[in-house]
Write a structure and sequence with these properties.
Helix content is 31%, strand content 26%. By secondary structure, the chain is of the alpha/beta class. The protein has two domains: 157 residues, NAD(P)-binding Rossmann-like Domain (Rossmann fold, 3-Layer(aba) Sandwich); 178 residues, Dihydrodipicolinate Reductase, domain 2 (2-Layer Sandwich).
Length: 375
């Protein structure tokens, strides 16, 4: 079966200890995490937590052997629980994750990691000081589609990337505490950063709030990466159709990734446009359009969330850094902060520097270029 080496590595890792897990949040995404951790052979799902009694009752009907509590402190104080999964609304990510780390628990947080970079930095510091695993739920990084795209790009098959265009659109779900960029764009940002392997140099964002005052429901983010390379991300809660599509344009080939396709999610097109190196007359000035064959890479259709949950357990047991560690979560939140600053500045570009709380660049790859104003 033709799978990417990274997918094989993630899928074949074996744990040495059966870990006990508690999940906080049984609303929209929490049940998916609960289902996966409950089904993993080397994991014991002991307890779930939610303030809503109806949600707790529903979880008990599905998983009668699991405890359902209304107070997260009960999970933090339970000596049997090794790891906490935070799937609550974003405003609760930092306080819940902080309490879990202080209680000596490993933590997996849903995206985005926290409401601010300062909160992310504190969580990273606490995890480092206590030798605990801190991981962020950038689920698409664990999908065979994204791992395959990264493999194709790294092989040089499509040449140098010129730009990436991404659309994540649907009607709702409207959030009350974050705008659509903070809600939907983290998926696309995590994919783009993983593919390019570098941070942006500038971030600018435009958007409008049509339904809830002060909370943008339509945004367009533009990211600059080094010389002559950029990415755009369109996010919306106001589209009649659900769209999950990304186009990666290279100098040799182009990739279209449609996550809504049931099987053929990736198609590689052998198309490009070449400009003549020199010309003397207008008649000689003709662009060369190349149209070749397209192909569909074979993908192993495993559930990305299952791979992500297993990776979390493996990293705890092996003491290794997750692919989507806290520092990756911090970088993404800092980009979202820059997009918010650009929104307030009516779309003005915000210079971006990849720095941690220690003031040092941490990400492997190219450093962001110096610029007058930085976030």
């Amino acid at each position: 079966m033709n799978t990417s080496p990274e997918h094989d590595r993630l899928s074949n890792e074996k744990s040495s200890k059966k870990l006990t897990v508690g999940v906080i949040g049984c609303g929209y995404w929490g049940p998916n995490l609960i289902r996966n951790f409950n089904n993993l052979a080397d994991c014991r799902l002991k307890a779930v937590c939610d303030r809503e009694e109806s949600r707790r009752r529903h979880m008990l009907s599905l998983y009668p052997g699991v405890e359902a509590v209304d107070d997260a402190d009960k999970l933090f104080q339970d000596p049997e629980i090794d790891a906490i999964v935070v799937a609550a609304p974003v405003r609760f990510h930092h306080p819940l994750a902080k309490a879990a780390l202080l209680a000596g628990k490993h933590v997996l947080i849903e995206k985005p990691m926290a409401s601010s970079s300062a909160e992310c930095e504190e969580l990273i510091r606490l995890a480092d000081e206590r030798g605990l695993t801190l991981m962020v739920g950038h689920t698409f990084i664990y999908s065979e589609s994204v791992l395959k795209i990264a493999q194709i790009v790294n092989s040089g098959d499509i040449g140098e990337i010129r730009y990436i265009n991404s659309q994540r659109l649907n009607l709702g779900l409207f959030q009350k505490d974050i705008n659509v960029a903070w809600d939907l764009a983290p998926h696309d940002l995590s994919i783009i950063l993983h593919i390019l392997g570098e941070s942006p140099t500038t971030v600018n964002c435009q958007g409008n709030a049509h339904i809830t005052p002060g909370i943008e429901d339509v945004t367009n983010i533009s990211l600059s990466f080094g010389p002559r390379r950029f990415a755009t991300i369109q996010s919306s809660w106001l589209e009649p159709r659900k769209v999950r599509q990304m186009t990666i344009v290279g100098t040799k080939r182009m990739i279209v990734y449609d996550d809504l396709q049931p099987t053929e999610k990736i198609r590689v097109y052998d198309v490009r446009v070449d400009r003549p190196p020199h010309y003397d007359t207008f008649g000689e000035f003709q662009y060369s359009y190349h149209y070749g064959d397209s192909y569909i890479p074979h993908l192993q259709h495993s559930e990305p969330l299952k791979v992500q949950c297993q990776h979390f357990l493996d990293c705890i047991n092996k003491g290794t850094r997750p692919m989507t560690c806290g520092r990756r979560g911090l970088e993404l939140v800092r980009i979202l902060e820059a997009s918010s600053a650009s929104l307030k500045a009516k779309g003005a570009p915000i210079a971006f520097s990849q720095r941690t709380d220690s003031g040092e660049a941490w990400q492997e790859g190219k450093r962001a270029s110096n610029s007058p104003a930085q976030v």
